[in-house]
Each structure stands twice: as C-alpha cells, then as structure tokens.
Protein 1
Amino acid sequence: MRSNQLSYWGIAQKFIQKTGPNQLYASSANFESMTTKSQSRPRALITGASVGIGMELARVFARNRYDLVLVSRRADALEAVAGRLEGEFGISAATFAADLGDAAAPGSILDFCANEKFTIDMLVNNAGVGLGGEFGESDINRQLNIINVNISALTHLTGLFLPQMMLRRSGRILNVASTAAFQPGPLMAVYYASKAYVLSFSEALAEELRNTGVTVTALCPGPTKTEFAATAEIESTRLFNSVVTDAAGVAEFGYQATMGGKRVAIPGMMNKIVAQSNRFTPRFLATKVVRMLQENR
C-alpha cells in the first residue's frame, strides 16, 4: 500500500539536490510551498486501475495534473503503474489493493482516503468482470461476483463518496458501462444485465444531481483491447474477432466526456449506431443478433 508520503520524499530529494544540505533548514518555507502545491491538485480515485481502460484512465488523469488513488486487486501491478505515472507526470499516486468482490472493500477504501486526508474530486468506477457461456452451465459463484463487482461495489462507492461532493457542490463521477448495456446478452447474460444497471443508475443519478454541481457520466465502450476477453473466456467469440477499440482512445474519450458533463458517452461511430439501432430493432431480434456475436467463430 502506497501513501502520499512517497511523493513528498521524492520532492524532498529534489529539493536537497537543488539547494544543498547547508541551506535546507533555512529554506524550509520553500519546501512547505512545494508540498502545498502537490496537495492543491484535484484528486481522482480510479478502480480497476492496474490494466486496460482503468490504467489508461489513470494516465489521462495524471497527464491532466490530477493526483490519484489507484485501486485494484493486483498490488504489484498497481505499484508499478503508480511509479510510472509519478515519474512521468510528477503527480502523487497512492495505491490501495482491494478485491471489490468483497462487500467490505468500499468501506475500507473510504477509510483509507479519510486516514490519508484525501479529498476525492473525481470518482471513476471502472472495475468490472465478466464471464462467457450458458448461465445454467456456469460457475454460479463467478456469476454472483459479477454482480458484486459491477453493481454492488460501484453503487456502494458512489454512495460513500457522493455526499462529500454534494456538500462541496463540486465533483464528477465516471461509471464505466458498455455497449452491452443497450440490449440483453445471451451467453453473457449477467454481464450484460449488470451494464444495463450501470447505465440506468448513472442516467438517473445525473438527473437527480443536475442542480448540485456534481455530474455523472456513463462511458459505454464496445469491444476493447484489454485482458477482459481472456479473463471472461470470450476471446474466440465473433464479437472479439471483429472491430476492437484501443483502450487509450476509450480513456481519452471518457475523460473529455466527463469533464464536459456529458451523461452518456459512446466512443466510436459504429458503437453509436449499434446503440441507437436498438431503439428501433425488435427486442427478440436484437437478442438473437447478440447471441450470434457471442458464439465462438
């Protein structure tokens, strides 16, 4: 687990090299000014930040001078991402290893931020899991974990950090949904349903918050080049052997949409067309098309 103290030590080393040890104590006021600058930057909390879209979102926020709180199950990978971003962009990146499938994880994340005195200006609920195959033949525990991570943890984290934003009348929430949110998904039934929840929840919340200074954006990417297809066991499907989007482009698009206060953001013209076409396509037909795409080649 990484704290902002690491970044302050890095600042201290640079300061000593520049001023020399004899001037260090005489120049303590300057050092205080440098650390205050670090603390004055906005801070984004990003879940699922060790790989894929989450990692790319962390890069985009760091490039735009946000300090970060990065959350993922993979502590080592998270530390590596934080170190790279601190070195490249000169921001502070704290890490917290947590499995969002555990109901206690969101509360632990809030406690960590409170103990570190972090103000969260941007909440990015990116972490998500999926599983391909027939629901009746699948591991029910893995299916329930999809609900725990994609729905319960996202809702819990939003409920924990939103009141602070409302009190400040300032803040942004980015929930990563999917184009899967726009129709049922045979052979990935629970995942598609979970993303429909994320989209519906985000749109409803955005309307509730329209006069509060807090915005909510649902990012709905299509198939994207990440580890998701492998972990969800859908690498051989027609869907993931068609047009697949670059994760960095999705992250940049999501950032710009969030900063612009957009409620629903769908990257890519083809994804927009597919999402909108479901408004006019009979539901049974859309479901059959999705099943065909979710089947192996």
Protein 2
Amino acid sequence: MNVYVAMIGKSYRKHLVYRSEVWVRIAIGVVWVAIQVAVWTALIGEDEVDGISLSDMITYSIINTVMALAMMDRSLAELDQRIRSGDIAVDLIKPFHYPLTLVVDGMGRSLFSALFSVLPTLAIAILLFGFQAPASPVNVLGFVVAFVLALSISFALACLVGMLGFYFLATFHFQWALGALRTLFAGTMVPLWFYPDGLRTLANLLPFQHLAFGPAATWMGELTRAEIGRNLGLGALWAAALLGICWWMWARIVRRLVVQGG
C-alpha cells in the first residue's frame, strides 16, 4: 500500500513539470465559462425559465467546467498509448497491479489539477461572473460524495474504453462514442431539467449524469434530500459495477495479450 501512496506523490510531482499547460488549462476554463455565460445571458437574460435564473446557470456552468478539469479520464489516453507502443508488456512484468497504478496516477493528476487548475479557474470565474453559495450543509456533503463518485465513474469509463485497445488495437472510435454519450447525457452544457421527459428519464438511468448534472444540481439545491440520496445511491451502484467490470476485463486481458508495435 505504501508503494501506491508513493506513486500518487510521484504522479503529482511529474505533472509539476508541465507549468505552461497549467496556464493554458486555466485560460481555456475561464474562456469556456465566459462562452456559456454569454449563451445563457442571451437565452435567459433577466427572466427565468422553469424557475431557473441566469445566476443559476452561471453557477451550474462554473461547477461543471472546474469539475471537468479534475476528472480522472486521462488514463484512457495513457493506456491507449502504452498498448499501441507495446510498453504495456513492460508494465505487466512489474510487481504491481496495473489498473491500480492507473488509479493512483489519476489521483496524483487530479490532485495537481485541483491545486493548480481547478482552484485558480474557480477563483477567476467567481470574480468575473459571480457564484451561488451552496443551498445548505447537507448539499455541500452531498456534493462532496457526488464528486468522489464522479471521479470513480470517469476513471472506470476511461479504463473500460482503454482496455478495448487490447482487442481492437485502436480506440479512437470508442473514445468518440464515449464523448458523444457524455455530451448528450451528462448535462455538461445543457442541464437535464431542460430535457424532454423521455430523454431525461433515460439520462437518469445512465452513469453519465453523475459526471456533471448530479453534483451541480446537488450543490445548487435543485434536488430534494430524497432525490440526493437516491442519486448518490445510483451513482455508487454505477461506480461499483463499472469498476468491477474493469477488474473482470483486466483478468481476461492478461491471458490473451496482443501487443502492437514492440
């Protein structure tokens, strides 16, 4: 266990090297929030739509933008690259469980992003556009749990798609499909409360809403306590199921590894 804890620190220190990337990510985050604020200002203005005000949508946009900066989905690119280069063969002979190394590397990366991308982006966005305080302490606690579940689900989805590279040797089409599903069903750009009933019902059953809509709506008080509990319970089930599938797939993959390129 101490080895994996040390790996988190190593991953954190590794990303300290890429300081220019930090400034780029902060700039992109602030610009993206500004674009969404401009769009919602044009659509809502001083009015309300279904009880949702411009201030609500600004807060929603900021939360989802900074959450996206901290997600653990970049393990997909790393796993895909190591499969295509053949370096995965070296990882398999190391005395570590490779999926766990992906987890701790993602945790180190998320810690780095939280300190050097999320917090500065959040601070600048709040100064420029404003931000709503949480509805209650219960909502803060619910948001923290929802955020941890979002990290888990984002990692599991990325890991699953990355592992398909062992079978197909290229995952760009699966990455595109995952991105499309996430854009549609996570509520990242358009909250699920604006969706038609049928589409929202489907989105509520899928894991993607736990990556964006669920945490944001929890913070803002748009969900009742019963809905928060139900949402967190469903998110925990999705996280456990997806992580379990990852472990099951990995056990099968190591028996039939095909390495491309080395």
